[in-house]
Amino acid sequence: MTIQTRPLIYDAPGGTFEGVIAWDDAATGPRPGVLVSHNWMGQDDFDTGKAIALAELGYVGFAIDLYGQGRRATNTDEAMALAGELGSDRAVLQARINRTLELLRGLPEVDAGRTAAIGFCLGGKCVLDLARSGADVDGVVSFHGVFDAPPFANKPISAKVLVLHGFEDPLATPDQTVALGRELTDAGADWQIHMYGNTSHAFTAPGANNPDFGLLYDAKADRRSWQAMRNFLDELWG
Prior knowledge:
By secondary structure, this protein is of the alpha/beta class. It contains six helices and ten strands; from the N terminus they run βββαβααβαββαβββα. Helix 3 (90-106) packs across helix 4 (122-132). Keywords: Hydrolase.
């Protein structure tokens, strides 16, 4: 196994963006590709690490950028502003993440007929929006995501959906999680929601330690959710 990474600079609605591709250079032939959608801080080493972890599992990981090249938050105020900007026009958000799916399919290492997307926090919302857009993607996985639907009608969802969520998450409450399940049912999706007890938002982020705001890393939920994702991808592609 020889894991390699390379930056990918690309155009998408709103400007120029920069993500990171990870793949096993020792593998031969095209393999499934998986988008990694970032949290509200923007694409960083956490997302690149997840892309590398996916490459170690035999996939091609693409840590995408939805803010724009060089636009990354350094504190919560900047993150709130960038996330608010992205979320203010859900049609643009969906167009940007669909553009990354198009790029993923065009990579020489990727089997264009086998694609998925995972996302963390804000990124969970973004991969759900990818599914809501009717994109031809096999599956999406939301880790402690945000569930508010776009202010326009969604298309039927052909992607399988896995939601991995903390029961104590203040950014997406149990009632909102139930509402998401109803939305996914109405859209015809094949969906699963796994709830982790005594678990808050950002449970996969080792540095998260702000219980007053509901942000808290949880090693058990982190491990369990990653295994659930692995099982989900195995089911998609065997």
